[in-house]
Specification:
Layout lengths: L21 H8 L3 H19 L4 H27 L8 H16 L4 H4 L3 H47 L7 H15 L12 H6 L22 H6 L2 H6 L14
Helix pairs in contact: 2-6, 3-6
């Protein structure tokens, strides 16, 4: 659910990317608390690095490893955690799953639930980057790797937002990236887990270039959390006021 910080000012009302311009998105993006936290955290890591610098080779290596790790970690988490069927079965984790992914698939263009939750993203980025960065270059290497991961997270979030804007990119690469992600949300959620990088989808056998390559999934909007499943594991339904069905455009938006 949205934090109290989002209840005032710009975030006192809901925003949907299919109704926004790029200019409006940029303004919203830089006002969002999570994005401010990612960029602020990266600035703090730059300060830590300046205080405890690593060598040039260590720094470049730590940054390169962080860059290479990002799409791997995202693919693993997106495929087996966010699209897994285990989190909603554990009552204390049901609210987290609902917030970080179920709500996004229920209404893919709803901006407030598109952004990840700080309580899950920052620990994940830290676990993926700090140990290996420290092993490469001590405190400075850890700061370089963690700061890189935070910047990548912010960039990934912006690219994710762009893919949900109601426009058709002129650039072929951007168009293909958008089409693959839209297929993940509106055709078959069991593929195209990448946001900007689909190499791991290809390696993992989950890539599809055209919607015609697969049958339309009946669980593309509910991730398998159907009314029947909700009767056995009701926590997400209780938090959501029921189980929404059908295409998001057919539902009433508050």
């Amino acid at each position: 659910m949205a934090s109290s910080a989002l209840k005032t000012g710009f975030w006192s009302r809901r925003h949907h990317l299919d109704r926004m311009s790029l200019k409006e998105l940029v303004g919203a993006y830089f006002q969002y608390p999570a994005i401010i936290a990612y960029l602020g955290g990266a600035a703090i890591m730059a300060g830590v690095y300046a205080w405890y610098p690593a060598t040039a080779v260590q720094t470049v290596t730590a940054i390169a490893v962080a860059v290479l790790l990002f799409p791997v970690v995202w693919y693993v988490l997106h495929r087996w955690v966010l699209h897994g069927s285990w989190m909603y079965k554990i009552a204390p984790m049901a609210a987290t799953w609902k917030r970080i992914h179920y709500d996004h698939h229920q209404d893919p263009n709803h901006l407030e639930v598109l952004f990840g939750g700080l309580h899950t993203t920052i620990p994940t980025v830290a676990l993926a980057t700090l140990p290996i960065g420290y092993a490469i270059g001590g405190i400075g290497g850890a700061a370089a790797a963690f700061g890189t991961g935070l910047v990548q997270t912010a960039v990934n979030e912006f690219c994710h937002c762009i893919q949900h804007l109601g426009y058709t990119p002129k650039n072929k690469w951007l168009l293909a990236m958008k089409q693959r992600h839209m297929a993940h949300h509106f055709h078959d959620e069991s593929g195209n887990y990448g946001i900007t990088n689909f190499w791991w989808d290809r390696l993992g056998g989950t890539f599809y270039a055209k919607v015609g390559d697969r049958r339309k999934s009946p669980t593309v909007f509910n991730l398998g959390y159907t009314p029947e499943v909700a009767r056995r594991w009701p926590r997400v339904a209780e938090l959501s006021g029921g189980v929404a069905t059908g295409h998001p455009s057919t539902r009433i938006r508050n």
